[in-house]
Predict the structure.
Amino acid sequence: MKVSAIFKNGLTVAVVATMAAIAVPALAWEPTKTVEFIVPAGSGGGADQMARMIDGVVKKHNLMKAPLVVINKSGGAGAEGFLDVKGAKGDPYKIIITLSNLFTTPLATGVPFNWKDLTPVSMMALDQFVLWVNAETPYKNAKDYIDAVKKAGPLKMKMGGTGSKQEDQIITVGLEKQTGTKFIYIPFKGGGDVAVQLVGKHIDSSVNNPIEAVAQWRAGKLRPLCVFDDERMPYKAKVTDTMSWNDIPTCKQSGVDMDYVMLRGIFMAGGVTEEQRNFYVDLLKKVRATPEWKEFMEKGAFNQTALIGDDYKNWVAKEEQRHIQLMKEAGFLAAAK
Amino acid sequence: MAEISSLMHGFSVALSAYNLMLMFIGVVLGVVIGVLPGLGGANGVAILLPLTFTMPPTSGIIMLSCIYWGALFGGAITSILFNIPGEPWSVATTFDGYPLAQKGRAGSALTAAFTSSFIGALIAVVMITFLSPVVASFALEFGPPEFFSVYLLTFCAFVGMSKGAAFKTVASMMAGFALAAVGLDTVTGTLRLTFGHTELLKGFDFLIAVIGLFGIGEILQTMEEGLAFKGVQAKMNAKVVLETWKELPRYWATSIRSAAVGCFMGIVPGGATPASFMSYGVAKRFSATGDRFGTGEVEGVVAPETAAHAAGTSALLPMLTLGIPGSPTAAVLLGGLLIWGLQPGPLLFVEQKDFVWGLIASMYLGNIAGLIVVLTCVPLFAAILRIPFSIIAPVILVICAIGAFTVHNSMFDVWLMVIFGFIGYVFKKLDYPLAPLVLALVLGDRAEDSFRQSMLMSQGDMRILFANPLVGSITGLALALLLWPLLSALWTAVRKSLA
Amino acid sequence: MSDGNGGSRSVVSLKTMDVLVALIFFAFGLLVAWDSHRLGAKWAEDGPQSGYFPFYVGLIICFASLINVVLALRVKAAEGESFVSAEQLKLVLSVAIPTLFYVLVIQFLGIYAASTLFIAVFMMWLGKYGWLRSVLVGCGVSVAFFLMFEIWFHVPLPKGPIEALIGLN
C-alpha cells in the first residue's frame, strides 16, 4: 500500500479512469515478456474456467503481444497463489483472479495476507449462488424445501459445498440463521463434484454457482429453487424447455432473506505503477467487449457488474467488512495469533 | 446398431488429412510432455488450448486428446530408462520397468509398456463406444463412502506385498500418510503440520517426492557402484519389438484384469495413478511368478501400464457426460470444451453428435498414431542409455530440477526434491521400501477426506461403509484382500509349528 | 577418506545408520503427533477431528521406529556390515555436492546458466572431457530447454542476470 501510494502521487483516480476509457496511447507501458495469470484455485473450477476463458480471448483477438500463461496455485485454499503475488511486489508480470477466498482464506487460516497487499485492477463480474435440489425430489420452491428441512429436524438434511469455511459454507450458515434449521454441511473439493453428488442423491441440496450446475439442470437432473441475490438474474433466454435464468425467484421472494454474490475480479501485485495498471484495466475492458465474453457471461448467468478504479477498491473494502462480519457470526475466524 | 453408424460417421469426421496431421503433431508433443517430468499432460493441453481456437472444435479436440495420449505413452519412457516417473501414473511402471532396463532389456520393457498402454486404452474406448450411457450413470452411484471403499481397496491390494522388514514398511507408509496430511485440511479448513511456514501450505507434492526418491536416489545409488548405468549393452534393433510381442500374449489374463481395474477406476473416477498401483498389486497376487515382481518381470510392466491407460481413457467419459474431470488433464480439456461453447453434461451426447463421435473416433485413431510413433522410436529411446553416464547424469539432474520447480513454480520444491533424493538413497540402502510411502502420499488425503465426508454424512456411524450392496462389496473385497496374506501367513506358521 | 584402497574401509556401519534413521523417524512421528494433538485429535460427534488421523499416524511411526531400533541393535547379521565405504561415499559425494551447489546457484544465475555450468563442470570433472566439448554440450542442453520451456510451452523458469543482459527474460 505504501509503495503504491507513492506512485499514485499527483494522479487522481478520476484521471486514471478516463485515461483507461480512451485508448491507451501508443507509448504507454506494455508487457514485453510472459505474464503469469495466477489462479488461486484448482483446475476446472469457476475461477480457473474464467481465467482460461480470458486467456483464450486475449490470444484469439490478439489483445496482447506478450504471452499470457495461466498457472494454478491452489495450495492452502488459494493462500499459495495470494502469497506468491504478495511476494512479487512491484512486478507487473503477475496478475491474479480472485474469488471469495481473497477474504475467507486469511480470515479462516490466519495466513498473513490481505487484499490491500495487492493492487485492484478490475472487477470482471459477480458470480451468483443458486439453491439446488435433485429434480426427483418433490420440492417446488425454497419454502417447500426449508419446511422439509425443518420437519426433518436438525442435522438430518445434507448440504454439499466447495471447501470448508468458504463461500458455500458461509451461505449455508446464513441460511440456517435465517430459517432456524441445521444442515449437515459436507465439504467437497470442487463445484463440479458437488453437482454430481447432488445428482447421485448423496446430498440433499447445494448452493452451486450457475455454471457449475447448468448442464445438469438442462438435462433435467437438478432443480433450481432460488438465487441468493437482491434481484432476479436478467437472462431471459430459455435454458431448459420451460425455464430461463430469469424465472428463478430470489431467495428473498421465497422467504429466505439471504443474499451473497462472489467477486470474480483481477488484481496485480502491490507497488506497480499507474501506467502498468492501466494497461491491464484496458486489456480487460477489451476482453469484456468481445462476443465470446458475452456468451460466457450468459452461459454462466453472471451478474455483469464490472468496476474499476476507486469504485472497485471501495467495493472490495466493503465486502471485506461484510465477510469479517459473516465469518465472525459463523464462528469461522482463525484463533487469534 | 446405432453406435456403429455413429462411430462410422465419427471416423468420417475425424479422418481428414488435416486431422491426421494434427494427430501426429499432437502425439509427438504429448510424448515430449510425458517424458519431461516438469510438463504434465495438463500443462501441455492448457498451453496449446488457445492455439486450437482457430481450428474447428472437432479438429481442436482431436489434437488436444492426442497430446493426452502422447503424454500417457511418454510417462513410461523415463520410468523405464532412468527410474524417473515422467507422470504420476508411471510410478508403478518403475517397479519392474527399471530393473528390466538394468538387465539390458530396456527395449522389451518399452515395447511391453507401449503395447499394453495401447491395449488398455483400446478396451476403454470400446467400452465408451458401446456402453457410455450405462457406465456414465454408474459413476453417479459413487458418494463419499464408495470413494473411501475404493481407496481402501487400492491400499489393501497393494500392502503386504513389499519385501523387507515389516516395521520398516509400516514406518515408511505412515510417513507417507503424515506427509500427505501437511497443508490445508479440506474438511475443516484448518492448516495442519505447517508449523507456521507458508512454504508448507501447499503440502508435499507427489511428483516432487517421487522425482527425488526415485530419480535422484537412483543416481546416487548408481554413482556408488561406479560411473555407469547398467544395461548399456542393450539390444537396440527393431527386432526387439517383435520378440516382445511374441511374449506378451502369455499375460492375457493380467491384461484383461488390469484393463478392468483401469476402466473401473477411470469411470468412478478414482484416477489413473491409483489404478496403476491397484493393478500392479492385483497382478502380483494372482501371477504365477508374483514373487519375482520387482526384479524385472515384463508382466509387472504390463499390469500398471494397461490399467493407467485404461483409466486415463475412461476418465474422459465422466468428464463428457457429468462434467467431472477424472484427472487434472481432463479438467483442462473440460475448460476447453466450455470455451468452444460446448457444455459437458448429459446432453452433450444428444446435442453435439458430431463432436462427441468425432472425439471417440479420434480416440481410436490417436491411439494407433501414438503406438506407431512410440514403437518406431523404441530403439532410439533405448539408445539414450548408451550416452556416457557423466553426460546423461547431469542432464537428468537438470531435468529433475526443472520438473520439481514447475510443479508449483517454487525454488523451495527444488530443495525439497534434493532432500527427498538423499532420503531415497538412505532408505534404499536400509531396506525401507519406497512404494508404500509414495502410495500413502498420493492417496492419503483423498482417502481421509472421503472417510470424513462419510462420517459427516452418517454423523459418525461406521455402518455407512456397508450401507448398500455397492459400498459393502467393495469394502468387503478390500478387507478380504487385506486379511488374506495375514491369514495365509498365520496358517503356514501354525502348520510349521505343528510339523 | 584419503585413500580408497579397494574401497573397503567403512565410514559408517549399517547398524549405526539403521539406529540413527529409526531415531529420526521416531522424532518425526513425535512431531506429527504433537502438532496434531494441538489441532484436536479426538473423535467428535460427527467423525474424526482434523488431527485425529495424523495423531495416530504419528504414534504408529513412533512405535514402529522403536521396534526398528531394537531390531537394529539385536540383529547379529548386520554386525560389522558397512553402510557406505570411504570409496563409495567419495563417489556419492562427487555427485551430491555439485548438485547442492547447482541448486544454490540457480537462485543467483537462473536455471539456464546454472544448468550450463553444472553440466560442463560435471563432464569435465567426472567424465574427463575437454572443456570445449563440455561447454558445448552444456550450452546445447540449456538452449534446447530454453526453446522447449520458454518458447514452446510458455513455462517461465527462473532466470538470472545473464538472460536480463541479452534481453531474454
